[in-house]
Amino acid sequence: MPLLETATGQTYYTLDGPAQAPVLMFSNSLGTDHRMWDAQLPALTGRLQVLRYDTRGHGQSPASPGPYRVEQLGRDVLALLDALALERVHFCGLSLGGLIGQWLAINAPERVDKLILSNTAAKIGTADAWNARIQQVEAQDLAALAEAAVARWFTPAFQLAQPAQVQQIVAQFQATSAAGYAACCAAVRDADFWQDVRRIAAPTRVFAGTDDPVTTVADGEYLVRHIPQAFLLPLRAAHLANIEGASAFNAALLRILSP
Length: 259
Hints:
- The protein is α/β, with parallel strands linked by helices and 259 residues long.
- The chain has helices at 41-44, 70-83, 96-107, 127-140, 146-153, 156-161, 163-175, 178-190, 217-226, 241-244, 246-257, and strands spanning 3-6, 9-16, 23-27, 49-53, 89-94, 112-118, 204-209, 230-235.
- The protein has a single domain, classed as Rossmann fold, CATH 3.40.50.1820.
């Protein structure tokens, strides 16, 4: 699929599945790209069109000067949907992608059918922690962060059992633009939906990893308490639950998105 010129810049995307089927759009986490959803394609593309894209500054979507804001990343999504003539989609975002999903459901509710927020929170981390990470990236590049990223993304047991899958994600991380990564760190740092999630009207499912050290089950419970039509699904996984808990993740998506 192409690197598409949209109203907000260039965005790389892929679209798989039957042409007339409903569309499920996936939004990747910080430091990965559209391929982080590879484990979802075989289970979903028989029933759905699956739209994946690379967030600005990740994968094949170029990095523009930062810092970014989640609103900017959300408008990238709207521009891509407009360019593809898609009026309304199901949306599934993980971590940073989940923040983008919250922004969309709050600010462009007419574009979101069902919303899946995976391994995310109304606010992720602290400004001090994000500023420290940005400074580290600017000083040392992404290679210095890889080991810590893996520890957040996967449990030790999964790392031992599935080293090839872990390495695929590490390769995505290492190929990410340092400038794009730092700019997206700023977007996460500044995003705060503690109050605004109450305005989300879309039917929402919140997936939370029971071993996620970044966005905890408690973070998921907050979203469920404050989003009117939200339900929680705990998954036995760390931060990248769509990979570590792929079977349960995919089964849940099919249940949620069945007509």
